[in-house]
Structures are given as C-alpha cells and as structure tokens.
C-alpha cells in the first residue's frame, strides 16, 4: 500500500533500481584513471541499508561541498555556509522522501515555509529557468583560456587526462544537446583547486575557518 501523501510519480526512482555509490563520469579522463576503483567517501558507509532517495540526498550534499571547498577562501577569511550548518542539514535529512513533493511540485517543505514571504508565482512556480545558453556562450568565449588551463596544467602533467580527446573537443563547434563542455569546466575547476592548494601549502590553510 502506498503511504498517504506520497506523490503518484514517486515510484519512478524506485523503478530505476538501486544505485550505490556516486555516479562516475570518466569523460576526458585517461584510461589509467578510468580503470581505477571508485573512491568511497566516508558518508557512503552503510548506504546499503538506506533508501535510494536518501542516498541521492546525501550525494547532493557532496556536490554542494565542492563549491565551498576552495583554498582561495581559506586564507584571511571566515568561510560560513549557513545552509550547510549541522541543524539545517540534519533537519533536511530527517524529512521523509515522500514529503519532498506535494501538489505536483518539488521542494514542498521549503515552498510551504516561505510561501507567506514570497509572491505566489515565485513560491509555487514549476520551473526555475535554464542556464545552458549562458554557460555555452561563456564556454565559447573563454575556450582558449580553458585549453591552456587543461592542457598545460598539473592534471595533464600527471597523465590523468585524455589530452587527445580534450584537444579534439575544444576545436569543434557545439552541437544541439551537447553538454560535454560542462565536464571540461568541472575538470578545469579541479585544476584550479590543485594549483591553489600547491600555491598555499607554505602558508598552511586554516581548516578552522571552514565552518559549515
């Protein structure tokens, strides 16, 4: 029997089957990296006993942390992420997955919490817009800089990247539905992270400043 309040579209994730561990994207990586076993994050321990929805929720928090873990923010600055404070995260994780949706809309709890403070067309909108066109334009505009960053960086130097595939992709025009440039931007972000860590190693970044 379906639990009361669970939306009719909820079984879609269940039909997709179990998927333990984070999604692995080996695009533009060297063969030696693709063949390696996936790194297990401490937060993944015990996920076999969790629902797929809960696993997805925790993995989403992984991705958010990536935007905060920037060495350039560690020095001479307090890093505060209020939405990742322990009380907020624990409260969010305590919400049953079948209550995430209501009336055909996602983020049901947050929408209800802020409904009195927002215009109805904002609080109850079904979409939030898409950024692909803006991101594609930024990629094409800064492609030469991205090429230098990736092909002349530490990741390529260590043999972690498929340099040939990256060079080929950077020379071609974007086709409809081609979003692989997002992957190149992700790799470029990692390259910058590595360089920032190496540049600040002598100063010793203060982890006390990273208060989530």
Mean pLDDT: 80
Distinct helical segment count: 11
**Could you say how many structural domains there are in total?**
3
Quote the beta fraction.
Answer: under 5%
SSE order, as H and E?
A: HHHEHHHHHHHHE
Shape: globular
Largest sheet: 2 strands, parallel
Radius of gyration over all CA atoms, rounded: 21 Å
What oligomeric state is this?
single chain
Written account of the structure:
This protein has a two-stranded parallel ribbon. Residues 1-10 and 208-212 have low confidence and may be disordered. The protein has three domains: 43-94, no CATH class; 98-129, no CATH class; 130-202, no CATH class. The protein is globular and about 50 Å long. The protein has helices at residues 11-15, 31-34, 52-68, 86-93, 108-114, 120-123, 132-141, 143-151, 154-157, 163-171, 180-200, and strands at 79-80, 210-211. Helix 8 (143-151) packs antiparallel against helix 10. It has 212 residues and is an all-alpha fold.
Provide key terms for this protein.
3 domains; two-stranded parallel ribbon; mainly alpha; 2 strands; disordered C terminus
Please render the helix and strand layout as text.
Blueprint lengths: L10 H5 L15 H4 L17 H17 L10 E2 L5 H8 L14 H7 L5 H4 L8 H10 L1 H9 L2 H4 L5 H9 L8 H21 L9 E2 L1
Parallel strand pairs: 1-2
What is shown here, in short?
The protein contains 11 helices and 2 strands; from the N terminus they run αααβααααααααβ. The chain has helices at residues 11-15, 31-34, 52-68, 86-93, 108-114, 120-123, 132-141, 143-151, 154-157, 163-171, 180-200, and strands spanning 79-80, 210-211.
């Amino acid at each position: 029997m379906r639990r009361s309040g669970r939306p009719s579209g909820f079984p879609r994730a269940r039909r997709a089957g179990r998927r333990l561990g984070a999604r692995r994207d080996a695009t533009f990586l060297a063969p030696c990296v693709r063949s390696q076993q996936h790194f297990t994050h401490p937060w993944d321990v015990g996920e076999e006993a969790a629902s797929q929805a809960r696993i997805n929720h925790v993995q989403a928090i992984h991705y958010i942390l990536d935007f905060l873990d920037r060495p350039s923010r560690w020095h001479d600055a307090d890093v505060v992420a209020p939405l990742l404070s322990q009380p907020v995260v624990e409260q969010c994780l305590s919400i049953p997955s079948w209550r995430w949706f209501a009336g055909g809309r996602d983020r049901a709890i947050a929408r209800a919490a802020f409904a009195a403070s927002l215009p109805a067309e904002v609080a109850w909108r079904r979409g939030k817009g898409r950024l692909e066109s803006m991101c594609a334009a930024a990629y094409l505009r800064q492609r030469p800089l991205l090429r230098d960053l990736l092909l002349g960086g530490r990741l390529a130097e260590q043999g972690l990247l498929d340099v040939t595939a990256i060079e080929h992709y950077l020379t071609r025009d974007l086709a409809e539905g081609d979003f692989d440039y997002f992957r190149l931007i992700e790799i470029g972000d990692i390259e910058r992270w590595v360089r920032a860590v190496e540049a600040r190693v002598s100063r010793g970044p203060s982890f006390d400043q990273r208060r989530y």
